[in-house]
Amino acid sequence: DDTLNARRPRVFVARRIFPEVVAQLREHFDVSTHDTDEPLSRDELIARLQGCDGVFVAGTEPIDATLLAACPTLRAVCSMAVGYNNIDVPAATARGVVVSNAPGVLTETTADFGFALMMATARRITEAEQYLRAGHWKQWSVDGMAGADIHGSTLGILGMGRIGQAIARRGVHGFGMSLVYHNRSRLPAEDEAALGARYLDLPGLLKAADHLVIVVPYGPTSHHLIGAAELALMKPSATLINVARGGVVDDAALAQALAERRIAGAGLDVFEGEPAVHPGLLEVPNVVLTPHIASASLPTRLAMCQLAASNLRAALTGQAPPTALNP
Ligand code: DGY
């Protein structure tokens, strides 16, 4: 029916996503897609969004006030990421544009990865593998590739949201770690008691942690939250793990601290200016580097896309999206 077709909302999918999710969207919308992994620039995005009602994005598309002003037909911005530092939510709200992210579905998968990165860093797994592959392994050695323990050590969590708490549970219940944390607000007393969690200010956390895991959202208040002064407070035997956003850590300061062995190691899944990686980090052996894959199990990436698609359907049919971000 042409009349009905004419009224179908138009949706742009700004990233290559799973074909089955695009097919689901096509049941409800006129869908156009950007089908490669090469991100669109803001100007290209603006051009593709003309006449569109909704857009499906990831954590990489810059949805700022300029773009929103240049796309007056846009009513919904739905992201498959939990982090939404790429979206100006107040600017969208001011224009009546519904914004959603994709929390919850990636919590356990991301916590698994954060823990894996911590273990790989503490036990020097990638460094040891590179040593072996390079043919350097000639004999067993009493302290060769010896690292730090996970079990019984002190886990420090910076950012005690869903993912921080999921990592904390793994450490406390699975590995007998003691738990210290810092967050904008304290956990309820019963949650602290269940984890044996000790709340500290940021300097206190940095001094106490054997393994510090960063899981805070990125924004103006967390930009370079960890720089040279903060790294200087950490134990020389400590490791730093970042599965949040690169901008939370001053990568130049971190590369220097690693090179000078002022901390023992780092495990990084995110970088300032990624996919570029600070050259200093590529030069030091005591860092485990992964390409922003903490939520990348296949089932979880599919669930993230499906949640973003549900949000789009709700937003464009006048319902409240399950995980809207507008106040
Ligand atoms: C997220 O969901 O925020 C991940 O970092 C992927 O962008």
TrEMBL record:
Signal peptide: none
CDD domains: GDH
Domain D-isomer specific 2-hydroxyacid dehydrogenase NAD-binding as annotated: residue spans: 115-294
UniProt xrefs under InterPro entries: D-isomer_2-hydroxyacid_DH, D-isomer_2_OHA_DH_cat_dom, D-isomer_DH_CS1, D-isomer_DH_NAD-bd, NAD(P)-bd_dom_sf
Top-rank EC class of the record's enzyme: oxidoreductase
Keyword check for Translocase: no
Any Pfam family matching the protein: 2-Hacid_dh
Oxidoreductase as UniProt keyword: yes
Limits of the D-isomer specific 2-hydroxyacid dehydrogenase catalytic domain: 11-326
EC number: 1.1.1.-
GO molecular function term, any single one: oxidoreductase activity
Keywords: Oxidoreductase
PANTHER family per the UniProt record, alphabetical: 2-HYDROXYACID DEHYDROGENASE-RELATED, GLYOXYLATE_HYDROXYPYRUVATE REDUCTASE B
Family indicated by similarity: Belongs to the D-isomer specific 2-hydroxyacid dehydrogenase family.
Protein name in the entry: D-glycerate dehydrogenase
Species this chain originates from: Ideonella margarita
